[in-house]
Amino acid sequence: MTLGREERPLMPLLAPSGAEFAPVVGYANRLVCTPSERFGPRAISDFQFVFVASGAGRFAIGGRSYRAAAGCLFFYGPDVPHVIEADDADPFVLYGVHFIPEGPLPERPPESPLGIRPAKGDEPSPAEPGLPFPPCARTGMWPLPYFETFAREFVEKRPFAPEALRGAMLQFAARLLRWCESGSLPAPTPLEARIAAVRAMLEERAGSPYDAGWLTEASPYTHDYVSRKFRERFGAAPQRYHDERRVEQAMRLLATSADSVTDAARRLGFDSVHYFCRWFKSRTGEQPSVFRQRNRTI
Fold first, then answer.
1. Distance CA 205, CA 202 (A)
2. Which residue intervals define the domain HTH araC/xylS-type in the entry (predicted)?
3. Domains with residue ranges and CATH for the chain
4. In 3D, which of 65, 75, 79 has the Cα closest to residue 120?
């Protein structure tokens, strides 16, 4: 979907009361959906962007249905009824970020999204004068690094995570509004294409221990140069990026498969389940068994 000027209500997501846009991220995550997995009908008390990284399915927002595939970006605000339903044969991988447009920053991000409630399928949507973005737009894949940052900062909860999340949200909002104005973004340079290929390889090999030789395997540039450019582009060194994808794969196995913790450790290349448990807890703050018991949501 390319927005015509008459369809671009670029009003203030920069604050409902005319104040400065100072977003507070309340929840962000990456979710690998199971076949036909469904969320809703439901409504939320804040705003949410959901980005489709891969897979297919359907979104229904405010009584209107949308077919969804990789590169689709969805947006809705408080009390808007919506449904998210993954395809049976090709289920979604989704990124979601909940936020409010302004407010004080918490000391730490919360553990789970607040203000989600069931909604009736025929519940009317509230009047939404001048929402800054349509319910669905086909942006392509350029939003992905931003959503990866949201999910990483929220899950890791390192010092100053709320500030980092606000900064990332401001960067994303600026680029999104520019995209709405232009309708397109420049084609990647050859170097950017190479760095993207390195990222794809790291994601594909997330189930294996990291090997520094991969960087020169996927690129004609030197290891140090690729590592530096990769970090500039994606905000993390290749080894850390691979480690984060490995954590996500571990989460996916624990949340969506019938594998035992021992089986999951073995599939991720760990010789010791005890080391796997220590590694997983050091990155998520939870034991694998505890993570498995958490409620699934987006």
1. 5
2. 196-294
3. 5-182 (2.60.120.10), 190-293 (1.10.10.60)
4. 79
Q: Which of 156, 150, 83 is nearest to 74 (CA)?
A: 83
Residue (of 17, 7, 78) closest to 46 by Cα position: 78
The mean pLDDT of 226-235, rounded to a whole number, is 82
Angle at 199 between CA 194 and CA 205, to 5 degrees: 125
Q: Give mean pLDDT, residues 269-292.
A: 90
- Tell me what the mean pLDDT of segment 179-202 comes to: 74
Q: Which of 31-35, 91-95, 138-142 has the lowest mean pLDDT?
A: 138-142
CB-based contact 115:45 (threshold 8 Å): yes
What's at 26, amino acid-wise?
G
How far from chain centre, in Å, is Cα 181? 23
> What stretch of H or E contains 67?
strand 64-69
| Torsion angle in degrees (nearest 10) through CA of 17, 22, 23, 26 | -100
pLDDT higher than threshold 90 for residue 180: no
